[in-house]
Design goal:
CATH architecture: Up-down Bundle
CATH superfamily: Amino acid/polyamine transporter I
Strand content: under 5%
Helix content: over 70%
Shape: globular
CATH topology: Amino acid/polyamine transporter I
Number of domains: 1
Distance between the termini: 18 Å
Amino acid sequence: MMKEDSSHQTATLERTLGLRDLILLIIGTVIGSGIFIVPGSVLRQVQGSIAVAMLVWLAGGALSLLGALTYGELAARSPKAGGIYIYIRDCFSPLPAFLYGWTLFLVISSGSIATLAVAFSAYLGEIVPLTPILSKVIAIGMIAVVTLINVLGTRESANVQNWTTAIKVTAILIMSAALLWLGNGFSGEGVTLWPAGDGGTLASGFGLAMIGVLWAYEGWQYVTFSAGETINPQRNFPRALLIGSAALIGIYLLANVAYLAALGPINAAQSDSIAAAAVTAVAGPWASKLVAIAILISIFSAANGVVLTAPRVYYAMARDGVFFHRLAEVNPRFHTPAFAVLAGSAWAVVLAASGTFEQLLTYVVFTGWLFYALGAATIFIYRRRRAEVASPYRVPGYPWTPLLFILAAAALVINTMVTQPVRAAVGLGVVLLGAPAYLIWRSRKGVSGSETNE
């Protein structure tokens, strides 16, 4: 069994994740609560047009697939713990890599965990009454449970991820089949394939709808962080990213058609809880409880996926000497970066308890796409530097596949900066706050980011 070596510790990360684990990790991390609520807002933004709504979901999936195909080669070329952080560090410089890890720790990952935890308690409150204080206790308790699972072992966490992902995908498929069988939304009034409005309005609505759809697809990149614990990563990563991304597109399109079959486009567009509304329409109010249970499992699975992957970035940063050194330690008994897991979850608890995560996440989440584009761009540098090294997997359609992904990601970032300059300025400000922190750690450690984690 391959293990990562370390010059300053005896315990190491173990390669224990196989192809099935990676596929279910991708699907489970991506599917949180988005597919249960976002389709309604997408329909509103495209004037209730079924065809345009489907195109938005297909376009979001295609963009994710382009990125997945690109990152498949990157993971095969550099299968180390840290994923995107490693690619940016190796091909550009340690500073932008650190800024990505800093933002991931400070807001993106921790904020995502806090969001999922609070959503978990909110959906639980639909099943059993909860006081505000008890809701916060449950949110923090969920983070604690997920953290404990991930401290006790990567294999144990992957097993939980596999089962919870299988359950929620099965629930979505059964729900979709029932809605398609029992619904009659397509036979009602207001069914329009294409809106009658002008092209400018349609394009604007398409762009706004894409933001929500890309949020629903968000998370497939996280699997790259676990490359240091993957068996035969050169073979398994490209296959997992392709299969997982394609499966997500299919699941999302099926669910959208099922919601429309149950509610019709007018009612679907008016719903902010479209899954519950659709199930209630065909089966009665009691069935909405089943949807709440499915969402609870889905949220727990997504949170577990984030905690299973993101701390590997903090671990890689600490090994490079630019983060708290304890986060580079691997527990000798469980072979997990236990301190990195605990640190990330502890900060998520602070955000969840204080309620500050929502605004922070809103401001910063778009910056993730800046780093995704930067990470994808490293494929050109890897190929130039290691032209003589034969890669077991080469992204199809090169160079257009990574170029299209980079251009689309850049367009999303630029659009946010133009249309929401205040939000963009605050988000970029949070990212750039990491620069002085990086300089402080570098001055204390005197460690070059390229000298470790090889």
